[in-house]
Fold each of these.
Amino acid sequence: MSHSAAEVLAGAAVLAVAAGFAIYAAGASGLGGGAATYPLVASFRSIEGISEGADVRLAGVKVGTLRDIRLNPQTYFADTTIDMTQGVELPADSAILISQDGLLGGSYVEILPGGAIEMLAPGDEIEDTQGAVSLISLLMKFVGGSGDASDTPAAEGGG
């Protein structure tokens, strides 16, 4: 009988650990209804590499999540909705752009705060946007450049 009681206690311990892990995972992923949020919107020319659920960061700290992405049929821009963490207020002239974690890292949305006194209210639009920069396009410009040293200001006597 004691052997059976030990098995029941071991099973209960395993279930308790599994339940704790599930609660932790739900909270970390935002499914647990964690911090309160408010919406902001932004339109990007290109959001290549970004999908719904992407991090929104300010000074490298996650302050929100990209909730919704839609193509605007009139402007052909990607209209997005961002869930910002309550308590993080942004100046009205803030900028938002698509950034990458290093050369081969993943993409995320970065906010650059402005200096205006007025703050963005829930539902406001961040108008200063910069879309994703295609690494292939940059490499093609670099490779396709003339490579002539006389094109630089230093070669013209500027250095």
Amino acid sequence: MIKVGDALPNVTLQEYSEVEGNGCSIGPNPVKVAEAAAGKTIAVFALPGAYTPTCSAKHVPGFVEKADELKKAGVDEIWCVSVNDAYVMGAWARDQKVNGKVRMLGDGSAEFSKATGLTLDLTAKGMGLRSARYSMLVKDGKVATLNIEAPGKFEVSDAGTLLAQAKG
């Protein structure tokens, strides 16, 4: 399992963008984690699934609400990682009105989740292998703080906890 001081897994996540940028950027775009995290401070939070109750009602909205405060505390980017495809993450970003405040990154094959060792087996609930719920502060690709939730809990991976750690 990933721990404080470890580098983020060198895998590729997918991000759906609806705004055209350089080149042909609309649609799913690869995000090479090691490259994307290099030289930055990133607030990463992961959750079991898009559109699920706690994730939609509390987890994502908390990070959207505290995005400006996190930036003032030195966070360059906020990443939401979920075992969903880029299209679902893009639709969920619209639904959650993240408006560019949070990068919604799809871990469709659970490569990132497996590599961190932070998986949650929800096969019995018809959801398959998912990400555990957690948050971490990442500095230059290395984990600086890590907050892992017990299954079914939402107590330590919230935006307020990560904001306090970023300020600390």
Amino acid sequence: MAKLLLVDDNQDLLGMQGEFLRMSGHEVETATNGEEAIAHAASSHFDLIITDIIMPTKDGIEVIITLRKTMPALKVIAISGGGRLNAKDYLSIAQKLGAAATLAKPFSGSELVATVDRVLAN
């Protein structure tokens, strides 16, 4: 069982994704924006952070940059449904900045769990 931080400004997706991860045996905490995510990461140990890219306050790119500077060993999965750019463009940037894996929305619960398990195994 791993301790995960799930970050997304969409409450419905946050709840659904969190439930899939809990059902697969992981402990899950949540945050609804990048500032909350960075504060949670600074105050608690996580094995993995899953962050959306397009969010208010601080976006996922800023979260990844901050985490790479302050906690370079922490594994990150970036997720995105796109915005001004195509989701693949945002996810490509996230991977170049150090995300261990990426998922384009929409994705299934089984895809999320498989990606989390693969990243944690490496």
